[in-house]
Amino acid sequence: MADWYIEEGRESVDSFLDSLIWAEGTHAGIKSLTANGWLVALASLTWSFGVERIAADLGIDEFLGTGLDWDTKQIDHVYAGDKVDFLHRMAAKYEIPADRTYAVGDSGGDVPMLKAAAHGFFLGDYDPQIPGVTHLSEASIDMIAKHILNAEN
Q1: Per residue in 15-27, pLDDT tens?
Q2: Which of 33, 86, 26, 82 is nearest to 54 (CA)?
C-alpha cells in the first residue's frame, strides 16, 4: 500500500491535498468551537501527512494519523482503539473533565471512540444506536459545533 506513495514522492502526494474541497461549514464550525475555548483535535486512520496538512489548514494543533516512514516504508497504523487512547490523552493533557468530552465519527471504526466520549455525534446513513450518541444522517461541522455550544450553555 505504501509503495504507490513512496514511488509518487512526498512532494507529489502533498500536491494532491491542494485540491481538497472543504465541506460547507467546516472552517466556521472549528473556528466557533475554538473561539469559545474548546480544544479541537483530529484523529483519523488516514496518513499522518494528510491529517497534519488538514489540521494545519483548520488551525488544529493536536492530531493523530497513520504514520509512514518514507525511507523504510514502515507503516505505523492507527486503529479504532488508538482513537480512544488519543481522546483520553487529550483529555488528560488539557485537564478536560470526562463529562465534557465530545467525539464526532462517520464510520464503524469510530464507534469505540464515540463510546469513550461523554457525548458523541455519528454522521451518515447508518445509525449505530449508541447510548449518548446523536445520529445525524446529514450534518455539517458548523451544525455540530452549534449542538455542542448549545448543550454547554
Answers
A1: 888 888 888 899 9
A2: 26
